[in-house]
Amino acid sequence: MKILITAALASLMALPAFAQDACPMSYDVFEIGVPHTDMDACPDSMQVENAFCRLSLVAEVATIFAFSEETDCIIASQAYFDDQYALTIN
After folding, report:
1. Of 45, 48, 71, 84, which one has the greatest count of Cβ atoms within 10 A?
2. Inside any domain, residue 64
3. pTM, rounded to two decimals
4. pLDDT computed for residue 16 by the predictor
């Protein structure tokens, strides 16, 4: 089930463009439905401004979700497969 939720969110963000006033998913909905951890900062590779990011790790896929600080709406996502990241636990 968790894999399906993450896959659905990732495919949602793959759609071309959303209307300016549309919020495809709010952080409130994401927080309840997707297991994740907070990130100190969004990765530079995502090129998002005024955003906060969350990391969801399901099986071998790490997905980073970016949310607008202003609207709390999801604005971007990026999936990384097991050969594209290294996990360090402190």
Report:
1. 48
2. yes
3. 0.74
4. 47
